[in-house]
C-alpha cells in the first residue's frame, strides 16, 4: 500500500468547500478504525448521512480499498482515506466529530475488560492526535472496554489541556437499541415506538435498563423484568457467542453508532430537544463517569439528566453497577497517570 496514500477525489479536479455536494451545510466527520467490522458499515452509513459534508476514513490497514469503494456512492459527502500513524494528523485536522471504533473485539469466553491491554494504548494514541489536531471536535468513543476507555480519553485530554467534558461521549447506544428491540418484542409493539433508558455503563451488570421508565408507559411481570434485564445486559455476549470467534456486534453497532452520531450532529446544528443516553463525565452519581440521558447541543452534551425515580429492583442494580464501574474507571485513570 502506498505510504502517502490519500484518496477519495480521484481526478484531483473536484472543487471543494465545507458544504456537502448538494449545497447543504454539513459537518466534517472522521472515523478511526474505519476498515474494521464496525468501521466499514459505519463509513457506509455516514456517507449516506445528509448532515455530513466531509468523511475521513482512518485505519492502520485497508483504508485504500474501503475509501475507493465508499467514495463511489452518489451521496453528498466527500470521502478521503488515511492509512497509518503518519497520516493520523491529516485525518483529524478540521474535524467536527470523531468516531472511534478502533481496537480488538472479544472472542467467546472473554470479558470486555480482557481487551483493556490492547485497546487502552490504541485509544490513548488516537486521543493524543485529537488533542493536537482537532481539540474542539466531539468524540464518540466505541472501543471497549468503554467503561475504562472514556476515562483514558479524559485523562489524555486533561494532560493536553484540552479536556471539555461536554465533548467526550462514550457510545452506549447499542444497549438502548437492544433494549428497545427486546422490550418491544415482549410488549408486542413496533420497536420504533419504544424508548428504554439504559444507564450506568457498557459491560455486564453496569448496563442498567430502567424498565420502570419505558415509554410508552407499561408494566412488566417480575419474570419479564428478570428476562429483559439479563438479555439486555448480555446482548453483546449473545452476539460474540453466535459469531463463535469471528468477532462481536458490528452491523447493529454500526447502526447504533450512526444513530448516535446523527444525534450529535443534530445537536451541533442547533436542533432543540435532542436527547440520547451516553456515558459521560457526570455528577449524576458519586462516580466521575456514568451513562444517563443527555441533551446534545452546539457544544456537545450540554445537559445531563438525573436518573429519575428508580424502583427497588433498579436501586439494587444501581449499587452493583456502581461497584464495578468504580474499578473500571480507576483502571482507566491509572493507565494514564501511572
Ligand atoms: P475489528 O477488529 O473488526 O476492527 C477494528 C479496526 O481497528 C481494524 O480495522 C483495525 O485495523 C483498527 N485498528 C487497530 N488499531 C488501530 C489504530 N491504532 N488506529 C486505527 N485503527 C486501528 O473490530 P470491531 O468489531 O470493529 O470492534 C472494534 C471495537 O469496538 C472493539 O473494541 C469492540 O469491542 C468495540 N465495540 C463496542 C461496542 C459498543 O457498544 N461500544 C459495540 C461493539 C463493538
Ligand atoms: C457489544 O455490546 O456488542 C459490544 O460491547 C461488543 C462486545 O464485546 O460485546
UniProtKB/TrEMBL annotation:
Domain Lactate/malate dehydrogenase C-terminal stretches: 172-335
Major location (coarse): other
Span of the signal peptide: none
Keyword Membrane tagged: no
Residues of the full protein shown: 97 to 434 of 434
UniProt keyword list: Glyoxylate bypass, NAD, Oxidoreductase, Peroxisome, Tricarboxylic acid cycle
Listed name of the protein: malate dehydrogenase
Subcellular localization: Peroxisome
Stated family: Belongs to the LDH/MDH superfamily. MDH type 1 family.
Domain Lactate/malate dehydrogenase N-terminal span(s) in chain numbering: 28-170
Enzyme Commission number(s): 1.1.1.37
Subunit structure of this chain's protein: Homodimer.
Amino acid at each position: 500500500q502506498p505510504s502517502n496514500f490519500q484518496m477519495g477525489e480521484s481526478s484531483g479536479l473536484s472543487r471543494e468547500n465545507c458544504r456537502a455536494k448538494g449545497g447543504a451545510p454539513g459537518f466534517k466527520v472522521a472515523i478511526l478504525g474505519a476498515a474494521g467490522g464496525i468501521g466499514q458499515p459505519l463509513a457506509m452509513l455516514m456517507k449516506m448521512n445528509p448532515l455530513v459534508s466531509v468523511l475521513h476514513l482512518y485505519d492502520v490497514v485497508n483504508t485504500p480499498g474501503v475509501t475507493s469503494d465508499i467514495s463511489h456512492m452518489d451521496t453528498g459527502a466527500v470521502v478521503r482515506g488515511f492509512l497509518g500513524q503518519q497520516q493520523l494528523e491529516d485525518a483529524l485536522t478540521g474535524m467536527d466529530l470523531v468516531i472511534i471504533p478502533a481496537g480488538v473485539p472479544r472472542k467467546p469466553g472473554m470479558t470486555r475488560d480482557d481487551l483493556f491491554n490492547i485497546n487502552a494504548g490504541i485509544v490513548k494514541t488516537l486521543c493524543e492526535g485529537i488533542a493536537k489536531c482537532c481539540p474542539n471536535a466531539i468524540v464518540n468513543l466505541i472501543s471497549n472496554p468503554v467503561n475504562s476507555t472514556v476515562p483514558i480519553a479524559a485523562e489524555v485530554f486533561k494532560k493536553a489541556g484540552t479536556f471539555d467534558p461536554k465533548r467526550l461521549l462514550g457510545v452506549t447506544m447499542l444497549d438502548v437499541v437492544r433494549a428497545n428491540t427486546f422490550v418491544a418484542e415482549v410488549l408486542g409493539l413496533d420497536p420504533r415506538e419504544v424508548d428504554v433508558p439504559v444507564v450506568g455503563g457498557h459491560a455486564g451488570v453496569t448496563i442498567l435498563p430502567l424498565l420502570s421508565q419505558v415509554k410508552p408507559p407499561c408494566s412488566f411481570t417480575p419474570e419479564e423484568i428478570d428476562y429483559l434485564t439479563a438479555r439486555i445486559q448480555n446482548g453483546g455476549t449473545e452476539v460474540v457467542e453466535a459469531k463463535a470467534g469471528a468477532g462481536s456486534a458490528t452491523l447493529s453497532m454500526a447502526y447504533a453508532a450512526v444513530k448516535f452520531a446523527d444525534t450529535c450532529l443534530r445537536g451541533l446544528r442547533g436542533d432543540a430537544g435532542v436527547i440520547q443516553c451516553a456515558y459521560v463525565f457526570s455528577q449524576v452519581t458519586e462516580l466521575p463517569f456514568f451513562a444517563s440521558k443527555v441533551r446534545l447541543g452546539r457544544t456537545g452534551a450540554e445537559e445531563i439528566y438525573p436518573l429519575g425515580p428508580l424502583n427497588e429492583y433498579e436501586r439494587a442494580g444501581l449499587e452493583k453497577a456502581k461497584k464495578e464501574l468504580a474499578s473500571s474507571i480507576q483502571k482507566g485513570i491509572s493507565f494514564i497517570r501511572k
